[in-house]
Amino acid sequence: MPGNSYNSNSSNIPPDRVTRLVREKIERDLRKSSRASHPNDVTDNGGREVFEDEQRLRDGDNLGPSIVDEDLEGPASTPNEGCERLDGRTFSRQRLLVVANRLPVSAIRRGEDSWSLEISAGGLVSALLGVKEFEARWIGWAGVNVPDEIGQKALTKALAEKRCIPVFLDEDIVHQYYNGYCNNILWPLFHYLGLPQEDRLATTRSFQSQFAAYIKANQMFADVVNKHYKDGDVVWCHDYHLMFLPKCLKEYNSDMKVGWFLHTPFPSSEIHRTLPSRSDLLRAVLAADLVGFHTYDYARHFVSACTRILGFEGTPEGVEDQGRLTRVAAFPIGIDSERFIRALEIHPVQVHIKELQETFAGRKVMLGVDRLDMIKGIPQKLLAFEKFLEENSDWRGKVVLLQIAVPTRTDVPEYKTAQLCDSQVRYTSQLCGSHVKIY
Predict the structure, then answer these.
(1) Residues facing 108 on adjacent strands
(2) What does the alpha-carbon distance between residue 270 and residue 404 come to, in Å, rounded to a whole number?
(3) Quick one: which of 186, 247, 324, 409 has the fewest CB in 10 Å?
(4) Mean predicted confidence (pLDDT) in 35-40
(5) Class for the domain spanning 15-330
């Protein structure tokens, strides 16, 4: 395929980007000058200005709610939501509608019209909480079935305070769409595990119903996006759960700016062509204006699938079909590092760090943080550590492996089977002297 990169040449910076960079530089200077006269500012021992909210975080006051509010709502000191002042003029910040299967919070029902919200764990949440340049709204499923109108209204109101908009999916849709097609079909295939090897007739019938539920769920997400969309918004769709969403959105409004990003590998075309709905999914994703992947290899696999399965033309910029270009690029994901650095200054965190230092004093510590997932290789990691200790007896008692494992997709049958390795993991960890913490 022509070309060896799907990213634009970084030396040719578009004029609008130059304008944005200059504008951000001026705004930073203005913020610095305004902080010097801010009556509520305090200064730490290093001379760095610290706002009241950050000082409260350091002191550990209302630790949980404060962190959630800061992560989901941004700095509380923003004077006018959605506006930024520059040289006496007011600019409206561009709205970004982030659409993902799950919201960054999990909802827990406390009463007929009462809900509590907790921040969700996961890489997608950690990465997107660092997006602060836009007036962002997050659209997704709250992870709970809410069949009654009173509960839906109360949850919608609670989520609105966190700049979140719910999509209400019933239990059957969740079972067929999320547990079925997403995590029983797409996820294993995208990780090269292949399609389920069950009775062929039963698999075919199950696949058809799950695929229908998948399309229906994507349409439900599109309905909510369209309801809240305003001219000029950018819609950012995420992951394999919503591959049909770009097509649904473009059918509503062909001028809507739509991006789609995949947070898993995209397999080679030989693997993808084993999926019965391969062409439908590729065409739906190509309705987006920009398609993003973590690595160049994943982007190349996607373009190859479009050229070999659909017969479209692959270009250095992406995929072209009869003059319409869908840009394809690699965008390595990151995190809001400042958020984690600030967490080190919080008193309860410092206390926990001290406890860990005392627990593992005098020993080297190796840390693993993974979902309890069949592809993460946690049992293999522990066996490798055991092998290392067998062959290097002088390291026994001097090194420890600390593995944090978070259960995932507990409603999917294949994952229930895979996570039976929980007991195996704990047993193996005892043999090789490692510590495993499973949340």
Answers:
(1) 116
(2) 35
(3) 324
(4) 45
(5) alpha beta
